[in-house]
Amino acid sequence: MGRFLLSRLGQSVVTLVLASMVVFAGVRALPGDPALAVAGEEATPEALAAVRADLGLDQPVWVQYWKFLTNALTGDLGTSVRTGTPVTELIGATLPVTIWLSVFAMLFAVVFGLATGVVAAVRRGTWAEAGVNGLSLLGLSVPSFWLGLLAILYLAVGLGWFPASGYVSPGEDPLRALHHLTLPAVILGAGIAAVVMRQTRASMLQNLSADYVRTARAKGASRSAVVLRFALRNSLVVVVTLVGLQLGGLISGAVVTERIFGLPGFGKLTLDSVFSRDYPVIEGVVLVVTLAYVVINLVVDLLYTVLDPRIRVAGGAR
């Protein structure tokens, strides 16, 4: 287990270093001059040169990258050229909003997707499977922005069950936070719930027809034990992989949902920094998202070893 963990940690560090290079090069390849964005369209060449020197843009690229990397290792992601605020403060103020939204959305997607996926597999060929398949098709085919607008129109404005916009931190008032986040979390998690349902159903059907399940039935195992203890547990490997990939995507891709429901999250910060060519904020945002992906994938790898010991044994044998 220790060797497996060290191997995955080493791969994660290499991935982060390579990602930092890609992030730095990608941001520098964006069109436009950040010095011009700071100094203004009417700035003189002398003023532009002064701004470039102040931002360190007049130094060689490799010097800029080394400074970016060493500062990032100490937690210093620079200062926003647009607002003059440290990037870590901007990220610290907006990231919790997106994390809470993503966690609530993923909880809804996993609980709803797993439950309906198991029902569709166990009740194969019945009206229950047809109803679940219809729901999953609806979740996959309806765009989240349109679903969000309908939800605001009928559930928030029409019936008044949920607030149409705004955010309350769970640390301040957990019940009000749940009330504000329920609607955007359900809208954001609807598409993922449909994917989880389909993957769970397919994996459950495969496992329910496997030899070890027939053996368990022949030995007198109850129906609930066969479904929950044997078939569902082995189906979770596929679901865990899906959740890991989708959770990283939620953190970086909740832009539309945050815009529709007026949430001051990571998405708004990202869009504002891109439109204003705020290099330090863009680099910090992308680096944090990359770190989130790496950490989530590391956790998923560790969960594999818990759900399927053969993966741990194979990793230790190398």
Automatic annotation (TrEMBL):
Q: Where in the cell is it found?
A: Cell membrane
Family annotation (InterPro entries): BPD_transp_1_N (IPR045621), MetI-like (IPR000515), MetI-like_sf (IPR035906)
Q: Which Pfam families match?
A: BPD_transp_1 (PF00528), BPD_transp_1_N (PF19300)
Question: Is the keyword Coiled coil assigned to this protein?
Answer: no
Protein name per its UniProtKB record = Peptide/nickel transport system permease protein
Query: Which ranges does the record mark as transmembrane?
Result: 99-122, 134-157, 177-197, 236-261, 281-304
Bilayer disposition of the protein: Multi-pass membrane protein
Instruction: Please give the family membership noted in the entry.
Output: Belongs to the binding-protein-dependent transport system permease family.
A cellular component term, taken from the record's GO annotations? plasma membrane
Q: Which organism is it from?
A: Kineococcus rhizosphaerae
- Write the record's keywords in alphabetical order, separated by commas: Cell membrane, Membrane, Transmembrane, Transmembrane helix, Transport
Where would I find the ABC transmembrane type-1 domain in this sequence? 95-304
| Major location category of this protein | membrane
Single GO molecular-function term? dipeptide transmembrane transporter activity
